[in-house]
User: Which sequence fits this backbone?
């Protein structure tokens, strides 16, 4: 390994290596409703080749596998792909191939396989970990055929300074490889800059228990998460829809779903 | 009448104790960080870095992979364990059939003897 300080990617790899088992059955990452929305939005065709960026344990790839010809799933963390391979075998999925790769340095060349660029690129619940989001989006768009479809599903924050700062802080405490959850307006601008036309941009909210922030997290960070929530004013609590339900704390988590089409061709 | 009153008080007392116990139990559940999910048997894999080199890789996949550093073509080593960049000697390992296409990994496994001079 070269001599250098750890990057966001190194941190992400460390976090997801340690937590790979948490994501195999994570209710958030296997959410059938959202996976269904993605397939519905894409309207995939049997001839399609798909690239699933930051495939993790492969949940998105497996949701699309019955509808497309071939899927390549890439992830930075070998351990996650080892879990994905096992899940593929368990589910009898045979058209998904996995490659350890960094979205910022993709091992595919758009010029060497003219007919083999991707019809669909998906990236689910990962973009908030990318150290260079604009560069990563540009790479994803580069991999698409002209008019190809880019589907993003990610955490986001509403256009509100308080919610933006507190949610980003809480999620960093949940996972120190977290970079930023962006606002819908920022997504729109970034995708346009990457050469896409945004076809659909929809936000949705999940009212989730605090355990979704504290699972697999160090006791020090859990204490800080509790500290932040305890210090909120009633108005701030209301903004997060923070409430006690059935003996547990729940709050809003914001998400967004985007379908964008590559311009040109 | 007194008996009925006593019975009512007794029932209320028992109910109150029950509610108190339920509350205490509920609080017990809420306090502190939740338990780590138990790891399923078999998930404790050896570090991927140590897992066996080689394994079957789909020819279609091999045909589109390029070196992430110079975006040039790669060749499969004769033992099927590495994807080699003949321009800089970077070797990308194939582990359990999964190509590891990270620049750091290619550089770490660089073999200068594999560099082929352009004709």
Assistant:
């Amino acid at each position: 390994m070269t001599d250098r300080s750890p990057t966001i990617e190194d941190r992400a790899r460390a976090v997801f290596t340690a937590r790979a088992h948490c994501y195999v059955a994570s209710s958030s990452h296997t959410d059938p409703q959202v996976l269904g929305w993605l397939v519905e939005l894409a309207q995939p065709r049997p001839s399609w080749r798909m690239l699933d960026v930051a495939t993790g344990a492969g949940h998105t790839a497996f949701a699309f596998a019955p509808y497309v010809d071939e899927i390549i799933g890439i992830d930075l963390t070998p351990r996650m792909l080892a879990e994905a391979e096992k899940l593929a075998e368990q589910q009898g999925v045979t058209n998904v191939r996995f490659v350890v790769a960094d979205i910022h340095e993709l091992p595919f060349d758009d010029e060497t396989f003219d007919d083999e660029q991707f019809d669909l690129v998906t990236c689910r619940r990962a973009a908030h970990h990318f150290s260079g989001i604009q560069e990563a989006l540009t790479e994803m768009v580069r991999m698409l055929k002209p008019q190809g479809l880019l589907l993003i599903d990610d955490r986001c924050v509403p256009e509100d300074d308080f919610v933006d700062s507190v949610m980003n802080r809480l999620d960093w405490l949940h996972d120190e490889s977290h970079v930023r959850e962006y606002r819908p307006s920022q997504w729109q601008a970034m995708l346009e800059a990457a050469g896409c036309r945004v076809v659909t941009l929809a936000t949705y909210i999940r009212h989730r228990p605090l355990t979704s922030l504290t699972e697999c997290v160090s006791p020090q960070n859990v204490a800080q998460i509790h500290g932040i929530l305890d210090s909120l004013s009633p108005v701030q609590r209301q903004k997060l829809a923070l409430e006690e339900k059935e003996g547990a704390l729940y709050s809003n988590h914001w998400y967004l779903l985007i379908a964008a089409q590559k311009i040109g061709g | 009448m007194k008996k009925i009153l006593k019975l009512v008080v007794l029932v209320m007392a028992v109910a109150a104790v029950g509610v108190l116990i339920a509350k205490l139990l509920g609080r017990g559940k809420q306090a502190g960080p939740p338990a780590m999910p138990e790891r399923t048997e078999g998930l404790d894999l050896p570090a991927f870095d140590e897992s066996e080199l080689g394994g079957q890789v789909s020819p279609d996949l091999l045909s589109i992979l390029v070196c992430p550093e110079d975006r040039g073509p790669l060749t499969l080593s004769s033992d099927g364990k590495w994807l080699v960049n003949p321009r800089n000697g970077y070797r990308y390992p194939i582990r359990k059939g999964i190509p590891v296409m990270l620049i750091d990994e290619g550089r770490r496994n660089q073999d200068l003897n594999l560099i082929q001079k352009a004709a």
